[in-house]
Specification:
By secondary structure, this protein is mainly α. It has twelve helices and no strands. It is globular. The mean pLDDT is 91.
């Protein structure tokens, strides 16, 4: 779970980078429009101030969002990790969130934490608390945060349905979500793994084998994933020949 300090540091670094670009831009403008050094300094100060205000606005917005999502549970996570107490507190806090825009990402993040601890039944119970209507309302947005949220809903929801044997729900999620997951297949190992697992469980062995082979071709995978993928490829090809 990301800390508040890391968010602040990331925005400070972002500010430094944009100021550097601002300096380069002003030097270019000085050359083109033949500014004096005094005019250059005035334009540069204006640029630095404007960029500072913009970054500060984004930082405040991000900190408010962090407080809504993690502010109540981060201290417990920091002290105890993903303990029983952490999950209990997280569930209780989640029930107090009234905003769909905050609640949906909150529950989906909690799904990830349950999956990390291999608590798939709890992950499924938590997943259904996410607002599917809200996800469908943002699925065509270009915001990086919203794109990530849509991917999280479909990928992790599909994964937990497969893990818990809810194949009918998995089919529905796949049908709705594949157009969005497809664009991440080439760069996101988790998505590729989930889609391969889906086809394998649906006994679509030829497609499963192709996706698992693509997964193995990525390299640098955890041992458990390599073993599962290798076994699944062999089994899928054997089934395809029959």
């Amino acid at each position: 779970m990301i800390s508040k300090g890391r968010i602040i540091l990331s925005h400070i670094m972002a500010y430094i980078l944009v100021v550097m670009w601002g300096v380069v831009l002003q030097l270019f403008m000085k050359t083109v429009f033949h500014y004096t050094w005094e005019e250059f300094e005035q334009h540069l100060v204006g640029t630095v101030v404007i960029l500072g205000i913009a970054v500060l606005f984004l930082l405040v917005k991000e900190l408010i969002y962090w407080q809504q999502l993690y502010g109540k549970i981060y201290p417990i996570f920091k002290n105890e990790g993903m303990s029983t107490h952490f999950f209990q507190a997280a569930e209780e806090y989640g029930e107090t969130i009234k905003s769909v825009k905050v609640g949906t990402p909150y529950w989906l993040n909690l799904v990830c934490y349950y999956q990390t601890m291999n608590q798939d039944d709890m992950a499924l119970q938590t997943f259904v608390k996410a607002d599917a209507a809200y996800i469908h309302s943002i699925k065509n947005k270009k915001s990086a945060r919203k794109c990530t949220l849509v991917k999280l809903f479909f990928n992790n929801g599909l994964a937990v349905c497969l893990k818990t044997g809810n194949l009918d729900d998995a089919r529905r999620l796949y049908q709705d979500g594949f157009p969005y997951l497809e664009q991440y297949m080439a760069k996101d190992i988790a998505v590729l793994d989930t889609l391969a697992e889906y086809h394998f469980q649906m006994k679509e062995y030829e497609q499963a084998a192709k996706l698992y082979e693509k997964l193995l071709a990525k390299g640098n995978l955890p041992v458990a994933i390599v073993k599962t993928a290798t076994d699944r490829v062999a089994y899928a090809k054997e089934q395809s020949r029959e």
